[in-house]
Amino acid sequence: MTGLSHSHAPWIQRQTELLLAQRGHAWLLQGPSGLGQYTLALSLAKSWLCESPGTSGACGICGSCHAIEVRTHADLCVLMPETYMMELQWPMSEKAQAEIDDKKRKPSKEIRVDAIRDAVEFAQRTSARGRGKVVLVFPAEDMNHVTANALLKTLEEPVGDVRFVLASESAHQLLPTIRSRCISHTMQWPSAHDAQAWLLAEGMQQGSIPLAMQASGGRPDDAMAIWKAGGALEDWPRIPAALKNGDLSVWKDWSVGIQIDAAHKLCHDLMALHVNAEPRFFHRSSLQGIRPDVRLLSEWAKALAHSMKTMDHPFNAGLMTETLVSQAQTVLNSKDSRKP
């Protein structure tokens, strides 16, 4: 997931140093998932607020760094969907926490307008520790038009010493006016050596790394998530054939989200083969003999996108899996009319 720790990840460290050398008040960190946008954003926030910063970033030991580690820094405002706030252990407002605790509503999957208003008020306050203030927004695309517009004026004309860092995995979904107010930084892909070293340091076995990196399309965060998903990695190469045969066992112990993600990746690779491009997530040998009708592939991609949006509704997980496998089986057993 997006919130994995990139402790000692050299590609995050290099980008931290690069961005700290720049001047400005608002940054947009953008790129596909799994490259560490959130971690880089937090590294920048930590460095800006640090009491003893160096050219390479925060010291990691001062009172300010400690306050960020324990989620109590008075000069850092974190804007996230409440689902992410809970997962990454950031405190919510007392009102929001009470509403969720009292079962009055579920945690929001969007950045709420109440939180944006709090952030605007935060930006106008005096710095508590005297090192300025930082507003961190992640994933920035989870602001809807109302919340984005509420932030826009403060982003355009910040009051006092406040910096903004917006981290996004779908920057194209942001309002053009938001993008134009920020210094844009495209996330760097780690080298194979750096990614392997980090995955080893995080506990992944050496033998699992090549398959994990392939299944994730070379993204270390996603590689770690797949590896941790109980059996998902060892079954990865047999997914295409299993789905073609309607074999439900390939999804055993997988969350619905990982099932849909794997199906999306299979769909992507089959479309790539259709235009004579290389597959990204599966080895060619796993896709041998599967050349479905491209029209059905396109319809399947749309169905999977819809499933991703609705996967957290109170559906029966078993029925959801059966539906996903049935859809896949229909597509994978079709024939591309343009192939002999």
Describe this entry's structure for a reader:
It contains 16 helices and five strands. With 340 residues, it is of the alpha/beta class. It folds into two domains: 10-186, Rossmann fold (3-Layer(aba) Sandwich), CATH 3.40.50.300; 229-332. It has a five-stranded parallel beta sheet, with helices on both faces. Strand 3 (133-137), helix 7 (145-156) and strand 4 (162-168) form a beta-alpha-beta unit. Helix 6 (113-124) runs parallel beside helix 7 and helix 14 (256-274) runs parallel beside helix 16 (317-332). The radius of gyration is 22 Å and the shape is globular. It starts with 9 loop residues before the first helix and ends in an 8-residue tail after the last helix. The model is unreliable at 1-6 (pLDDT under 50).
CATH superfamily of the largest domain: P-loop containing nucleotide triphosphate hydrolases
> What is the total tally of β strands?
5
CATH 2nd-level architecture of the largest domain: 3-Layer(aba) Sandwich
Strand arrangement across the biggest beta sheet: 2-3-4-1-5
The profile of the biggest β sheet is:
5 strands, parallel
CATH fold field value of the largest domain: Rossmann fold
Distance between the termini: 41 Å
In round numbers, the mean pLDDT is 88
Structural class: alpha/beta
Helix content: 40-55%
Strand content: 5-15%
Low-pLDDT stretches: 1-6
